[in-house]
Design goal:
heterodimer, A: mainly beta, four-stranded antiparallel β-sheet, 0% helix, 53% strand, B: seven-stranded mixed β-sheet
Chain lengths: 118, 107
């Protein structure tokens, strides 16, 4: 069974950066596009972008192009989301998810809460 | 960007009731529409892909339909574990976008 294990909650200062990890087990990460989704407290889901771990190609939602950076390490089967120049607007839960052959988000991480506060 | 509008935003319902959640796209999305369930603990589960196909392990009381800009998720007879948030998501064009969500609550 495929499982996605995300790193722990983060409390970070405004203006800094944070790097979140998402480790895939039960399959090789290169079998999937890896996506990241943002959910602000009490709000809906917002797509950030995706990476193809096979060739490191990325696609981002326009509003996250200067905010998020997606990378992947095939040796550790892990995808990463780096968020930069953090503000209170970045306080949210971030999910990683895999895109399956049916173009749906088949497997989800548990989510990681990022709190931006001084 | 394609805007996805879900209605209603919340829905009180009873056990055993049949409910339908609607999702409207701001332009045609050629059936490229998925549905997800989010539980209060934050866990997200895929339910339906490509408008009407059940994901593996999803009970048959869930069904999806639609075309063009209008889509729906129906639960034929509510079970206790169905009270959760539901989201539609289009993948016709990037950026992939989600509906605002529907909270299914126990009446």
């Amino acid at each position: 069974e495929v499982q996605l294990q995300q790193s722990g909650a983060e409390l970070v200062r405004p203006g800094t950066s944070v790097k979140l990890s998402c480790k895939v087990s039960g399959d090789t990460i290169t079998a999937y596009y890896m996506h990241f989704v943002k959910q602000r407290p009490g709000q809906g889901l917002e797509w950030i972008g995706r990476i193809d771990p096979e060739d490191d190609s990325t696609k981002y939602a326009e509003k996250f192009k200067n905010k998020a950076t997606l990378t992947a390490d095939t040796s550790s089967n892990t995808a990463y989301l780096k968020l930069s120049s953090l503000t209170s607007e970045d306080t949210a839960t971030y999910f990683c998810t895999t895109e399956g052959n049916n173009y749906a988000f088949d497997y989800w991480g548990q989510g990681v809460m990022v709190t931006v506060s001084s | 960007d394609i805007q996805m509008t879900q209605t209603p935003s919340s829905m009180p319902a009873s056990l055993g009731e049949r409910v339908t959640i609607s999702c409207r796209a701001s332009q045609g999305i050629s059936n490229y529409l998925n549905w997800y369930q989010q539980k209060p603990d934050g866990t997200i589960k895929p339910l339906i892909y490509y408008t009407s196909n059940l994901q593996s392990g999803v009970p048959s009381r869930f069904s999806g339909s639609g075309s063009g800009t209008d889509y729906s998720l129906t639960i034929s007879s509510l079970e206790p574990e169905d009270f959760a948030m539901y989201y539609c998501q289009q993948y016709d064009s990037s950026p992939w976008t989600f509906g605002g969500g529907t909270k299914l609550e126990l009446k």
